[in-house]
Design goal:
The complex is a heterodimer of chains A (125) and B (201). Chain A has 125 residues and is of the alpha+beta class. Chain A has a single domain (24-124), classed as Arc Repressor Mutant, subunit A, CATH 1.10.10. Chain A has helices at residues 2-22, 25-32, 40-51, 57-69, 93-124, and strands at 38-39, 53-55, 73-78, 86-91. In chain A, strands 1-4-3 form a three-stranded antiparallel sheet. In chain A, strand 3 and strand 4 (86-91) form a beta hairpin. In chain B, helix 2 packs across helix 3 (56-64). The longest helix of chain B is centred in the middle third of the chain and has 29 residues, at 104-132. Chain B has two domains: 1-85, no CATH class; 87-201. In chain B, strand 1 (138-142) and strand 2 form a beta hairpin. Chain B has 201 residues and is mostly helical. The chains are: A alpha+beta (125), B mainly alpha (201). The A-B interface holds A 18-19, 21-22, 24-25, 28, 39-41, 48, 52-59, 61-63, 65-66, 69-70, 77, 82-87 and B 1-4, 33, 35-40, 42-44, 46-47, 63-66, 69-70, 73-74, 76-78, 81, 192, 194-201. Strand 2 of chain A pairs antiparallel with strand 4 of chain B.
Chain lengths: 125, 201
Amino acid sequence: MYIAMKTTLLVRDERWEAQLRKGCLDLVILAVLWNRRLYGLEILRFLQDTSGLELAEGTLYPILLRLKQDALVESTWVEAEAGHPRKYYWLTPEGRERAVAMIQTWDGFTSSISRLLVRVKENSQ
Amino acid sequence: MSVNSTPSDPIPEYLSRVFAGLKGIEESQRQEIVAEIRSHLADRVQELIGQGSPHPVESALAAMGDAGELAAQFAQEVHRQESSRSYAPWVLLCAAARIAVTGVSGTMVFLVGLVGYATGFGFALVALLKPIMPARVGFWVGPHLFVWGMPGTTMHAHELAGQYFVPVSLVCAFVFASATTLVLQRLMRSTKRMRYILRKR
């Protein structure tokens, strides 16, 4: 019984964390592409190296497609030394505007939550 | 376009399954999506070989996930974009039907569309039937009756709308169809089936 409850709580924790991270994906990719032209695998590696975050490979490309459809990123195929072309992405002016707006929203939201959590942390210690 | 793979490796088969899963999408876009996955897999296999992986191809494919699921994510993004720009009820409802199979929120979007358009269609239908069957169609109110349309029996009931029945019905049909279109477009943009996965290392 205890194990079952513990498992349920863990699953709920994972779902919550998944939802939280899912909501940030667009901002994460726009931030990675800030001032950079990168292809898919480079985006994943840059994300890992700079933030420690790992994005599932199959998840990245549909998001890039959506961002492109929304005119937030642009792309072009470039012949590479590796022997096959790579599709490079960069931010459009609209993408930069959206990134700035999302960052402002993010800052406001996280500072509000942090103020709320300070009291919880103090009481839980 | 080189894939850096041997004839026996499963990459071409994987790409074929992705391509097949993109059915209904414009041919050039299907090819571009597959080309990008092919390019990614080629890079990933090379990277894994460099890392000394014993099964680089299999590992690269496993990291990309199921081909059908991947294609479904692409298709959903394309269809959502198409439908969010469309004002055609049929296009919107078809897109909602595709989203309906992906989860509870998708099902809710479809039901909102179905109920909204069905109601609008109902109002339009009774407006068309009124001139054909003026004695049967109307706004009927009675002891156990409250019907805008064509009840089974009109015994002991009174028709209250009179000459206003057709114009009011047409206005209601327009309002329901328009509101449903706007709501569907909004829901299509906001409902995202993003199978996650951004996980902390």
